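Predict fold of NFACT RNA-binding domain-containing protein; 521 aa.
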Amino acid sequence: MHLNYYVLKRLSKSLEQILLGSELVESFSQEKDELILSFLLKDKSSFYIKATLQSDFTALSFPENFARSKRNSADIFPFLVRCKVQSIHQYENERAFHIAFKNGAVLLFKMHGNRSNIILIPKGQNPQLFKKKLIADKSITLSSLERPIERSEALYLAEPSYSKLYPTFGKLIKEHLLAGNFHELTATEQWSKLSELVYKLETNPFYITETNGRPSLSLIEYGKIKEILSTDPVHALNRFYQVFHTEYFFEKEKGSAIQLLNKKISQAKSYIHKTQQQLDKLESATAPNQIADIIMANLHAIRSGETMINLFNFYTNENIDIKLNKLLSPQKNAENYYRKSKNRKIEVEKLTENILNKEEQLINFQNQREAIEKTETLKALRLIIKSSDLAGNKGNQEVHLPYKTFMVQGYQVWVGKNAKSNDELTLKHSFKEDLWLHAKDVPGSHVLIKHQVGKSIPTSVIERAAGFAAYYSKRKTDTLVPVIYTPVKHVRKKKGTAPGQVFVAQEKVIMVPSQGPQTEA
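Predicted 3D structure, encoded as tokens:
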């Protein structure tokens, strides 16, 4: 209700008493959507008007002192500087008033919620807007703001609709009438109630009330009354600004920041826990190179075509079940396990690195939360939020990649998550020399092996990535899967084709068993 017509009507009357004959000495802005007007009164004291016209909060306040910053400060409406105030006018039944100067210029305060604006209208010249994006205000005329309404009991009884006679009541007053069962009264009783209400709006003290957990400035006793103020609109608007902008905004932003950090802390702890479990499982399992050694020591005992064999583990003095690829010789199976040992070392290093990085992030989040919990001012809070990258900008948001990532012998292998992600992976996240793989003639994930300058991708890496392509395809359960591969520069997408559908040239085919990941990064 702080922008209600009845509040502004009382404010403009008070400002008239304060500002008549004063001189505007400064008009500037040093915060986005905030205008400061400094007046030198006839008694040589200063009076400030601060117009806060932000999208989420619009208000007028009147600070006792205001120190202009030497930096990031811009003069606004310099045409008015050193001009004297001639009059102040409140527009009838409109949330607008103006300050008229002796040079013929008018400074219009149009207080229309998030469309509020301060407009300078020099005599005989085009309007100048403080908020330039509200282009419609360029065509505003002062005469259009006057809305005289004739009111009488006879007119009301003839057509009992308070919204026509009092269009300026606003949401809070309408809720007050609804709560008082206004519509159940007779027309005569309604008129009496309206007359009493208008008298209160014009004479009552101001109240700080709370409705739906949000503070309001009110001229009626509605909602949870937090404070009873004086009848002085300048004092009331200052107190409301302090309560809403400083206290309510502060607690709201502080709570949101802490909630966000609690979420980040919880996510970091969960990631560390899960990744540590992966690492423990990987390190506690029999090392692939040891399995290879056991196979090599028992080549004579392994028959071709076997998929599983139980052998003595001379590292632990216990028997162990070893999986074999029936299409490979025992010696080739051993070579595969030696190769996996190299991958295992890389995976262990990567998981360890990920845990250390996440632990560092966790400590940072906890320190940020502690700093915010100790913060007592909105300005300090916003500095922490800005420096901590918690302000909701792109840097603060988690990046959702369209692919899963794996490490194979030091090479990054990226696997698309779905048909739409396949397009994004292949068309936006690839380099022309990356190697592209896909299970032949069936739906499945696009797979990329990221190119490394000056290196040729080893056959063993291609085979492993092809295993991913087979695993993330409709041929997942087949014994052997044909997988095509080619550099990305030979992959094309035609306009109008289905998500994930591409056309490939100069491809090669490799037959591999379907093989899913041991660990996902």
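The chain is about 35% helix and 25% strand.
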